[in-house]
Amino acid sequence: IPLVTVRHVSKRFANGTLAVRDVDLELGAGQFISLLGPSGCGKSTLLRMIAGLGAPTSGTISWPGEQGADQGTAGHGGRDLGFVFQDPTLMPWANALANVMLPLKLKGVPRAEAEARAAEMLALVGLKGFEKSYPRELSGGMKMRVSIARALVMRPKILLMDEPFAALDEITRHRLNDDLLELWWRERFTAVFVTHSVFESVYLSQRIVVMAARPGRVMADLSVEADYPRDE
Ligand code: ADP
Ligand code: ADP
């Protein structure tokens, strides 16, 4: 069964903008899926609705595997997901470890266990040794790594990423693409990656969902036969 089912979903904002129009989509467990399209085509709006951040105007988004998590409108509605925004949005007064520990603390995980799990996650994203660094001491790429670690620390089934690397320079972006792919290969969460970069979508994903410039429709759903792992 699919992890997420999107049925006839449309979204019209209060100002009249039709951002997403009649989208049908099934997100399969374990896939790396890109949502590709030019700026303003509704990718972000769709991703946020999948996360439960904003309800569709019409249509339904359901999580067939999860009881009681269907069609939630507020917050994540108990859905088993992590979300990475374009801006890493770290707490400036807390070091990298404390930033990654936050979701564990909110869940009431005991401090020692939370620390160990956060440290392990930081190591997985390539930041071993930077646990005590504050966001201002980290580069843009490193802050994004912390943000990914924080999104994954609860080990969600699905990681939703909204143009996570768009603000980074090309070289850093390339490194992060490689490392994200490796992480996904190792950890096997379902990944949904919003991008306007054809290169990124082809490089990263097994499946590319193409959205049109306007207004918010899915124009193609492509399967990319990639040979994972890339290098052995
Ligand atoms: P993308 O992520 O593909 O760049 P968005 O989903 O951010 O596209 O936006 C789709 C359309 O909806 C755009 O025309 C955008 O201006 C509009 N839009 C996004 N958020 C809002 C909002 N809160 N209120 C009104 N219009 C919005
Ligand atoms: P990436 O984002 O892929 O880690 P960056 O270009 O941001 O690449 O950084 C390259 C490397 O330089 C980092 O992995 C890190 O080892 C080091 N580095 C960058 N910024 C700092 C910093 N503020 N303090 C210590 N080391 C840093």
Descriptive report:
This protein has 232 residues and is of the alpha/beta class. The chain has six helices and nine strands; from the N terminus they run βββαββαααβαβαββ. The protein has helices at residues 43-50, 96-106, 111-124, 140-152, 170-187, 198-204; strands at 4-12, 18-27, 32-36, 58-62, 81-84, 158-162, 190-195, 207-211, 218-223. The strands form two sheets. A six-stranded mixed sheet has the order 5-6-7-3-8-9, with helices on both faces. The chain has a three-stranded antiparallel sheet with strand order 2-1-4, with helices on one face. Helix 2 runs parallel beside helix 4. The site of one adenosine-5'-diphosphate has 8 residues, from helix 4 and helix 5.
Task: Give the SSE layout.
Elements: E1 4-12, E2 18-27, E3 32-36, H1 43-50, E4 58-62, E5 81-84, H2 96-106, H3 111-124, H4 140-152, E6 158-162, H5 170-187, E7 190-195, H6 198-204, E8 207-211, E9 218-223
Parallel strand pairs: 3-7, 3-8, 5-6, 6-7
Antiparallel strand pairs: 1-2, 1-4, 8-9
Helix pairs in contact: 2-3, 2-4, 3-4
The protein binds adenosine-5'-diphosphate (2 copies).
One adenosine-5'-diphosphate binds next to helix 1.
GO molecular function: ATP binding; ATP hydrolysis activity
InterPro entries: AAA+_ATPase, ABC_transporter-like_ATP-bd, ABC_transporter-like_CS, ABC_transporter_ATP-bind, P-loop_NTPase
Keywords: ATP-binding, Nucleotide-binding, Transport
